[in-house]
Specification:
mainly alpha; 0% strand
């Protein structure tokens, strides 16, 4: 099985991405818990909705269904979008280069922080779904960066575990 993970066949790439997507979805759980708990500790003037909710509301308004959704539907859409994004990003992580000297936890945390920076300073403002992190209070940025580090730690650990379980001896291609 270990030789399978060192090959570059389409099947290898699909399995690699699927492992990352599953790990990314699972890692979104502890990230979400951290976000909720840290959000509760913010001062009242900074307790406006967390980014996943803001993004989902902007997107649903943009496609014309925001006014048709009730609160439970908005909450469900927010969770679905958040876990979906975490899953997709997890699939990308499996193609992020690491070595034995950079174990899954470290590379996962780094990837999580890079994902936060790229999303909150670049992708989301460029799409108009959320204002740049430069415009958000420092505590909220720390909350979100920390939550992405939690996600990355869980993601890196899970991917490494899944690859080791599957027989990848060196984890160099994870």
């Amino acid at each position: 099985m270990a030789s399978f993970f060192r090959t570059k066949t389409p099947e290898h790439l699909l399995v690699k991405a699927a492992i990352g997507m599953i790990a990314g979805m699972v890692a979104t759980g502890p990230m979400t818990v951290a976000m909720i708990l840290w959000h509760r500790r913010l001062p009242s003037h900074e307790k406006y909705p967390l980014p996943p909710r803001e993004i989902t509301e902007h997107l649903s308004d943009r496609i014309g269904i925001g006014d048709q959704m009730n609160e439970p539907e908005k909450a469900a859409a927010t969770l679905l979008a958040h876990f979906g994004y975490g899953s997709a990003a997890g699939g990308l992580y499996t193609f992020f280069p690491i070595t034995k000297e950079t174990p899954g936890l470290a590379s996962g945390a780094l990837f999580g922080l890079l994902l936060w920076a790229g999303s909150y300073f670049g992708l989301l403002p460029a799409t108009g779904l959320l204002s740049s992190a430069k415009e958000h209070p420092a505590r909220r940025n720390l909350l979100m960066a920390g939550a992405h580090a939690v996600w990355g730690l869980a993601l890196g650990g899970l991917v490494r575990l899944f690859f080791e379980e599957a027989g990848e001896d060196e984890c160099r291609t994870v």
